[in-house]
Amino acid sequence: MNKRRIIAVxxxxxxxxxxxxMWSASTIQREGDPDAxxxxxxxxxxxxxxxxxxxxxxxxxxxxxxxxxxxxxxxxDTNKVHRMTEKDAARFESAGVTRIEDANNKPVKRDSxxxxxxxxxxxxxxxxxxxxxxxAISELSMATSLDPKLTEAHNLLGVAYDKKGFxxxxxxxxxxxxxMEEDADTLNNLGFSLYQNGNYRAAVDRLKRAAKLAPQxxxxxxxxxxxxxxxxxxxxxxxxxxxxxGPLTGNLNTAKMLERFGREDDAIRYYEAARQIDPMNxxxxxxxxxxxxxxxxxxxxxxxxxxxxxxxxxAGK
Length: 317
Fold this sequence. Notes:
The protein is mostly helical. It has a domain at 246-317: Serine Threonine Protein Phosphatase 5, Tetratricopeptide repeat, CATH 1.25.40. Helices cover 71% and strands 0% of the residues. It has helices at residues 3-27, 34-40, 57-72, 86-93, 117-130, 133-146, 151-164, 167-180, 184-196, 200-213, 218-231, 234-245, 247-260, 264-277, 282-294, 298-315. α1 (3-27) crosses α3, α9 (184-196) packs parallel to α11 (218-231) and α15 packs antiparallel against α16. The longest helix is centred in the N-terminal third of the chain and has 25 residues, at 3-27. It is flat, with a radius of gyration of 24 Å. The relative contact order is 0.07. The model is unreliable at 16-29 and 53-113 (pLDDT under 50).
């Protein structure tokens, strides 16, 4: 096989892997709180406030096969994320200014024995942005050890713990941050952490305080709506969702949550309210057609389905 043919085969293989990776990225099970994911599917922001990850997702997916070839031919995967246990996390917290090294924790190239608390904070923030949560916990734990009053380090440490699934540790870090400074972001993070732990009343309290400090913050208002839903205060939930993204999305998000809870008649009421605002809303019509069929209202289901076909035809013009 000549050189050109080998190159052509390799290019075809790389492109095939890239397409497969893109498909996998869009179909794998998503991490995070299931209720928050429901809102995110409608374009809403929910969950913890955290540093935004830089870079283009599609570019990174396309680049993945090339990185794989690099590793196959002797490259070193310096960004590999290692598994961390609760025991490792406890070691980070009790380490003082001495870094713990073990098989579950790779060295941080930016680390320095003489680094200040703020330098560890910035290292931790960078690791968090890169998705290296073990390193982030190590660096941010060092920052809080050197300067226990460094509010942002406690807050970001809570985010890192949350990403690793250590909910209790995340809540403790957020509580420390809030005790030092009640800003909207830390209150939101604490409130959402309480929500994830099933403490919905306390979550509503913190999130309401956050909303007073940032009345237009979409993420805070959506989290507040989720907490109200879990308390069964649906009208309050709708108000929070509507403040976040307007009445149409407020009705849709409320209906989605009610559908999740098996409250089909109530979900229909909010989907119909969305339909009143936007008669051609495909999502509302599709859900109404299914829900009406489910509750035995066949005529209403057919009416909604006919309206859905009309809406889809109009959208295709």
